[in-house]
Design a protein that fits this description.
By secondary structure, the chain is of the alpha/beta class. The chain has helices at residues 13-24, 29-33, 76-88, 113-119, 139-152, 168-175, 182-199, 211-215, 220-240, 245-248, 262-282, 308-322, 342-358, 372-394, 398-404, 406-423, 470-473, and strands spanning 35-36, 42-43, 66-71, 93-97, 130-134, 161-163, 206-209, 252-258, 292-296, 327-329, 338-339, 447-448.
Length: 483
């Protein structure tokens, strides 16, 4: 079918479909031109403009997101040098990754005041630097460590911007154990928050964190449903501890994973804001913009042909920025191999700097507003996520659902379907199952990744992290073995 530029543009969807079917010459339209997400959401090849839509506001209009750089090196002196280099070269926030946290990747700093103080030596904590904690199962230890370290370094609590990231449900889901039943978990985390408030910190203090679901292979709607259930659990606990509901909601931060599927990632971040606004409205409080931290997904990274991870990270960061994330962290492209060296850390940092300062992605508030495809996908994710959220609540809430194993079972089904699609060549992993490099050379890291330990003394099935490529990489020849 020839394309003639003097022909009038086709603006009617029915007419366009008729022309498209003619080009397909009998091939099935749905099979060739449509797709389905892990949640069963149909992706059309073409969408009309979404009329009457207004932007979903997250960040202040025209303001950039916080460029976070992870600090996970257990060597305190080396971690301090890395942190100072990052801040001197464009980052304006640091994520302190503690051992056994959701983002630890086998490394992490000790939850001790002296370790944190050594890591932050020379950092002007009162100069507006964003500090975020990626806590392990004993989040209060990390909170006390940063509080004591700030004091030791001479910075009063009210001058330090810390997002404490207390996350007992997320870290408990990862290891398959919680410190007590739901009532006890709520009591413990609320006590920690009240203690930090008494010291003069402003928060946010708690993280409703979906990364544990994403890393375990869950779908976008499952990640959102889990986050909503966690946030509601924490909100109820804070209110029960004597904190006014309007104040309690400001003490909760939301954390999501972003990956190389830019359409779903953008829609997921937009959907979360509308979903939580609905929860707030049903709680009888006027909705306010939430704080979303987004991290490039660990599950999409590969150890084979890891240079492709630079592209994956770039796409994920782009999508999180367009989706309105308030803070973004980009994993070094060698994270699946080991502890990142200065070069890999610089690439991670510069990925954000280019998108923020050269591509000006923060200039427009919600660029996806009114775009038919993004609006349709956002709406569909909201519907699917709300259904998943309601299912968790009907099972007794997020703690009870984890203990029953229902959340884990649903995630396992989605992960298995994704694996089967790759196994059956209906999907591919670039550099692993598609176009593998037979002459690949090893990549430098400071320390190779240790073997991950299987959780012991579990109370319920853990949501273990698994890279999508991991099983397929195990079947490949060793690096350097090919002639």
């Amino acid at each position: 079918m020839a394309l003639h530029f003097d022909e009038p543009a086709v603006t009617d969807l029915a007419q366009w479909r008729k022309l498209a079917e003619a080009v397909l010459k009998g091939a099935d339209f749905d099979e060739v031109l449509t797709a389905k997400t892990a949640d069963g959401i149909r992706i059309e090849p073409l969408y009309a403009k979404a009329e009457g839509r207004t932007p979903i506001i997250g960040r202040a209009v025209g303001s950039a997101w916080a460029i976070m750089q992870r600090v996970d090196d257990p060597d305190g002196a080396r971690a301090n040098k890395q942190a100072l280099t990052d801040l001197e070269n464009g980052a304006n926030g640091l994520t302190l990754v503690f051992k056994d946290s959701l983002g630890a990747q086998g490394f992490g700093i000790d939850a001790k005041a002296e370790s944190v103080a050594q890591t932050l030596k020379g950092v002007y904590l009162d100069a507006g630097i964003d500090i975020a904690l990626d806590c392990g199962p004993r989040g209060r230890d990390a909170a006390h460590a940063i509080a004591d370290a700030s004091k030791a370094l001479g910075f009063p609590a009210n001058t330090v911007r810390v997002r404490f990231g207390l996350n007992p449900i997320g870290t408990g889901a990862r290891i398959g154990a919680l410190h007590g039943d739901g009532a006890q978990v709520a009591k413990n985390v609320s006590a920690a928050v009240n203690d930090l408030i008494a010291q003069g910190f402003k928060g946010p203090f708690i993280a409703a964190d979906g990364r544990v679901v994403h890393a375990a292979g869950g779908s976008e709607a499952q990640e959102l449903g889990f986050v909503l259930s966690c946030a509601l659990f924490y909100l109820r606990g804070l209110e029960a501890s004597g904190i006014a509901l309007d104040d309690a909601r400001t003490m909760i931060e939301f954390r999501l994973a972003n990956d190389a599927d830019q359409f779903l990632t953008i829609a997921k971040h937009r959907a979360l804001r509308r979903l939580w606004a609905s929860v707030e409205a049903q709680c009888g409080i006027e909705p306010k913009p939430i704080f979303i931290t987004s991290e490039t997904a660990s599950r999409m990274l590969t150890t084979r042909d890891p240079w492709v991870n630079v592209l994956r990270n770039g796409m994920g960061c782009f999508a999180a920025a367009i989706g309105g994330a308030n803070a973004i962290s980009v994993l070094p492209f060698t994270s699946a191999i080991g502890l990142a060296d200065p070069f890999a850390r610089r690439l991670a940092r510069n990925t954000q700097l280019v998108l923020a300062q050269e591509s000006h992605l923060a200039t427009v508030a919600d660029p996806a507003a009114g775009a038919g495809g993004y609006e349709a996908l956002t709406d569909a994710l909201i519907e699917k996520a709300w259904t998943d959220f309601q299912a968790i609540e009907k099972e007794g809430g997020v703690v009870a659902a984890l203990q029953k194993g229902t959340i884990q079972a649903r995630i396992e089904n989605v992960a298995a379907e994704r694996h089967a699609a790759i196994e059956n060549k209906k999907a591919a992993i670039l550099g692993v199952t598609l176009f593998p490099d037979a002459h690949e050379k090893p990549i430098a890291v400071l320390v190779p990744s240790p073997a991950l330990q299987t959780p012991s003394n579990t109370q319920f099935a853990p949501l273990a992290a698994l890279r999508v490529a991991e099983i397929f990489e195990q079947k490949m020849p060793k690096i350097g073995a090919a002639s």
